């Protein structure tokens, strides 16, 4: 268990990644309890997870900044962390800053491109294959420099616009060929990072709504390369509640007439989602769920709006209008006031632990038992949170019994 | 399946019972869809339930009124049902009114006693054993008159004050003896009705927070008599949500610091709960849950207040203060605006169907798989709604496979 | 005071107008208390208002229906009124239905046009001047037939798309000339109705966000014709609250960072506002207020969405994020669950009473003291509700003292 | 205007007082904008207020602590202030700590007494007259030591239990006599502080629900001594909203059926209010308002509960059930998430400024124009916030015109 593990984040200086870095440093130093970590709670807690001290952070980002600067912004705008904590994690921040490389801007959309710094912009003209090669080189340097036993690439970058559905009809040889064409096929950066990861034997976690590994061609590549992956779109707030409350209405045979959800928040993610193209990806990821859970389509409305003063505090208001016995209309409303990065970061650390354990055990392909972490879980048979969580618990119990046998 | 089934409600003219009567008549006549009925949804829907047309309603009530009058009050104060519907169920109402007998006032507390009509008050001096005998006679007359194949007694009466905990240490012979003593032990009416039901071979459902069958002595009697029973306290609103949302906080290892729930409503139940003695029983039933689900005790507060203008519309506001990663405090709030009687009535019909089916199949004793219906489910191994519902589904699948084999 | 008064509604069979008709009939028959009527409360109540019994309803509508049918829809979808009440107002409904004429479709936008019935569509080709002439004829017939002493035209029709700002630069002779041109200037129906009203000496109340009389040319015409008018856009819910709560934040010097308001509802008005062109007019009317009250522009967001299941029940959620002492960010949220037509109708009756009184007294031009009734009050010097209401009270006190002198 | 002003707070190390100290130091040093100060906004801002730099803080407290320690608690529990700000105000904190003297425990109730430190407890046996004499000595020493031109005593201590209504029937000579009796009359500390203040020529502001100066005998004394005073119970949150929203329902003639307000918070004030005796004083102060505003008594419910995790963040949920036209029941709900001390402190500074100005101008007796600051304003003719604020504005305009004349 003294294996060295690399955690490579795409969007390495974003809000979620900065919180992951802050939290990892705090956990290494014993400055904080592992509240919010699913893997810190039984029956998962006793699995032989990688030690926090064995993790090293690196990553790509299109912006140029530092962990200290980004954490300071979170503190000032959203009153999360504390100046004292930030002082104590400063050394880790400085060390990890050294491992961040310029990001890729291939097919990320105008809004994301507008945020890029000079270093990333210097690669604006690179082709998909050049981008993949550059990413691979960065990953391999990181692995070599830190003598890593295992490497996990996690996408926590801003949401890209939707992709051409035709991409889902290609197998890996076809996709690979089209990537190298003189007019290469439009595959967004989130997938290029994943290809590079797979090609150099790294695992991949897609914590965003971007397409990432959610293409048959990439699933194929993961299996060929013998790596594990999972995703898509971390489930932290309103959608988590939909996957928890929706099954209740279904079980009670209460007919949901309409479910309206308005989300407001003010972080960088919000700015990116202010672009209708990027927002479309996100809303789609949030909206398919209820029909799957209920078995019919209620009228739904999902809005996500950038309200600067809220900073990282996502405030959601949901209004659920339902019909009970004898046609009686009733209503449930909730408001959720959660700090997005603080809800997401422990789940990222959970997924890194789980993915690392599976990689260590030699698993390959999609991890189907982590559906409870995602809004649009790949390979998961159910949209209901309780059942998804039960699948995770059963996996943990299975692994536990295997470790005990040894 | 052409068996005749009696549904005997204690609190027969109360809001829940009146809604059961209205709904049953509407279902018999095909005037309404079975929305809100758990048994009308797969995988439960295809079990060989008793036909709505085979059910007859009778019951006890301490007040003197009619279904038509009580339904009119619900319509006027709470705008549920509709005048048109009430016209169409008038014949059933009139027939069922004939089957309602004066209720029992033994150990029901001052508040409930103050609501009693003359007929019930004429029995004020009866001893527990006299009350049991009277109830038995009423039940047997009902069974005979309507040539019933099966009889289900359902408690939907107002909440009684808490009982002496020492009652839980008695076995049936001991309890029976103390009931006949010259200074009889203080057993409330809810249990006397249940004893009478068991003694004449009827099943029992305790839909209220009152103690009812929730005593070892009564469990023993049910087994001896070969009858089935279940309970305690129908889970229709705020507590349902606690059993749905609590597991989410637990699964995500988010630390719940405090959970405050304020309930306001204006029906008769609310007036009874305005008495601190009666309220204590109810609050206890609502408050134990979170500690069981979370594994620790957050600060909790549950209030239930009578606000006349709300009528049958229970409005609950819950404020959940929880701590996430790095000690970050977040909040979720919800408001629930549900019509209590309309939420409860279909569950009563569900429980009648389920109890009747088990009685028909010759089961006896406690039904442990209906935990999802109750706030304080007897014999249920888990406080989590999703797991409770899974138990119901598994029971249904088992029964289905048994019926298919035949 | 036995003068006969005509209340001519544009949008005569819409939700607000149907509720006005129901309410007027109920008030005439003494079936309902005048709750929700500002003029029924002191110091306004004792002014010599026209008797309810002296009012007769007529109007234009582009749809073809009846009051009975529309009231039945409100009852069924939104559970307002009651079948019993609707029976009792049926005779008035039938009489007033006779007074409804086909509406005008000139420049109302595609969405409204799509709702029109055959009779109104038969006038699709009419020119603005033809439309004005037709309206005048309808008004004059109504006046003659019912021997009316005074006639008040009230616009309660659906919201039109915004108009060309250049219209505000024309005086009446210019506008009149351009209306008669071979390619007539694009003036919407709401203004054509007002012109016709003014030309035949009727008063006008614009209860909608449509432009109506809010053009210098029409103000000029009103003065020339010696008629009174007021408007614009009845203030019934969320905006009312903004005009009440905004001044509190201003007075306390609390800095409003953002004010987000999401409105959902499911009546016909909602369907029309689902068209972005029509919605633009409405949102503009709702959004200017805060800047006027606060003296700076906070970030604001106003959404209005059609959610069918809500019927006439407008549900608004507002989230106000404000900064207090030492930069501390705090929040207030509210939800408003109001029945739009039932909130609007008594205000319409109030405005009819007030307008009739002023017309009776020989006033002319804009009524500046009714700002409290409107979202975008014409001629009102303040956006604050309390001050607006004070203006109304002072007007009432002035009139009262004048009447007492006589 | 270079006069030196003493601000003497009773409850000097409490949450409100600590925030006053923090804010005053920040304002003196130009570290913060005067957001939340009513007197920093026109038309009040241009009055010749005392300079922040001319104010010195002193006070009484029954606890023994320091400003630095109390501010640290506020930071840690409630995330208000910031460590950086607290560093910058440390010198002022240290200086002001020197001016805090042991508080008085006469008739404060068990709950408050239980919080007292040793120094205050050493005076447990003192008689009312001894307490008054001790307070006077402290005030006079403070005035002398800092060569103060004017001294304002502000009560920001915890809420005392209600007093004997008979106290309101005494004049000053009677009260004075009974205070000196061998079994002295039960006058609580809040009034003893006020007597001492008046006797040594200091002004008094009662920012709490405790009785303080709200007795005819004390009003008499204030006039005799030629000092000014005002109060009672700062209006910062839920009650502020009642005084803003209530008049809207009244003006619109909407009938309020019920108004339910649940308040939860976790600061020291909350702990004191957890004692039913102390809570009674507070609830009374919060509950009389609506009847005054509406002209009839709706069903009301006010709860205040201590929920530790909330710290200084007062969260209130109000549910307003009202009846509109044709008996239609509608609802408004709001939640208020405000930081109590941060809302109160700027109002304390406002009242100090206003009181100092009036004292400087030689006014005496009750200040009737500051009703907008208080829940139970003494001498104020109206319960409506807008009218109360208008009275303040008119006072400011009057004073402004007087200053301009000179």
UniProtKB/TrEMBL annotation, chains A, B, C, D:
Q: Which InterPro entries match?
A: Myo-inos-1-P_Synthase, Myo-inos-1-P_Synthase_GAPDH, NAD(P)-bd_dom_sf
UniProt cross-references to Pfam families, sorted A to Z: Inos-1-P_synth, NAD_binding_5
Q: Name one GO molecular function term.
A: inositol-3-phosphate synthase activity
Myo-inositol-1-phosphate synthase GAPDH-like domain location, by residue? Answer: 237-341
Q: So which domain of life are we looking at?
A: Bacteria
Q: Which GO terms describe its biological process?
A: inositol biosynthetic process; phospholipid biosynthetic process
Residue spans crossing the bilayer: none
PANTHER family for the chain: MYO-INOSITOL-1 PHOSPHATE SYNTHASE (PTHR11510)
State the family named in the UniProt similarity comment for this chain.
Belongs to the myo-inositol 1-phosphate synthase family.
Q: Please report the name of this protein according to its UniProt entry.
A: Inositol-3-phosphate synthase
Record the organism.
Planctopirus limnophila (strain ATCC 43296 / DSM 3776 / IFAM 1008 / Mu 290)
């Amino acid at each position: 268990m003294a294996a060295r593990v690399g955690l490579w984040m795409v969007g390495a200086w974003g809000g979620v990644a900065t919180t992951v870095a802050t939290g990892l440093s705090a956990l290494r130093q014993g400055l904080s309890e592992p509240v919010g970590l699913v893997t810190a709670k039984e029956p998962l807690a006793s699995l032989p997870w990688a030690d926090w001290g064995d993790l090293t952070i690196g990553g790509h980002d299109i912006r140029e900044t530092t962990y200290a600067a980004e954490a300071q912004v979170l503190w000032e705008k959203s009153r999360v962390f504390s100046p004292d904590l930030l002082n104590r994690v400063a050394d880790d921040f400085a060390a990890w800053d050294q491992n961040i490389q310029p990001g890729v801007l291939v097919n990320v959309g105008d809004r994301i491109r507008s945020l890029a710094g000079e270093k990333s912009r210097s690669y604006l003209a690179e082709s998909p294959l050049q981008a993949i090669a550059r990413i691979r080189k960065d990953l391999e340097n990181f692995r070599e420099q830190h003598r890593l036993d295992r490497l996990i690439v996690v996408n926590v970058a801003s949401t890209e616009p939707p992709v051409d559905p035709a991409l889902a009809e290609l197998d890996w040889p076809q996709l690979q060929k089209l990537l190298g064409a003189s007019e290469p096929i439009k595959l967004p950066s989130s997938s290029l990072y994943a290809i590079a990861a797979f090609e150099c034997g790294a695992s991949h976690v897609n914590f965003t709504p971007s397409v990432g590994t959610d293409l048959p061609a990439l699933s194929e590549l993961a299996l060929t390369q013998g790596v594990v992956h999972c995703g898509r779109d971390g489930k932290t707030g309103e959608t988590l509640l939909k996957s928890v409350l929706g099954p209740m209405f279904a079980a009670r045979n209460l007919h949901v007439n309409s479910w309206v959800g308005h989300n407001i928040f003010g972080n960088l993610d919000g700015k990116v989602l202010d672009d209708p193209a990027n927002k479309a990806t996100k809303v789609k990821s949030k909206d398919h769920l209820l029909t799957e859970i209920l078995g019919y389509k209620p009228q739904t409305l999902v809005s996500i709006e950038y309200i600067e003063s809220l900073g990282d505090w996502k405030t959601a208001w949901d209004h659920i209008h339902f019909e009970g016995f004898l046609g009686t209309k009733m209503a449930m409303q909730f408001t959720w006031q959660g700090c997005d990065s603080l809800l997401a970061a422990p789940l990222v650390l959970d997924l890194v632990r789980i993915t690392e354990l599976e990689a260590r055990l030699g698993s390959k392909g999609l991890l189907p038992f982590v559906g409870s972490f995602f809004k649009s879980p790949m390979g998961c048979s159910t949209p209901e949170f309780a059942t998804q969580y039960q699948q995770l618990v059963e996996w943990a119990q299975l692994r536990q019994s295997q470790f005990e046998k040894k």
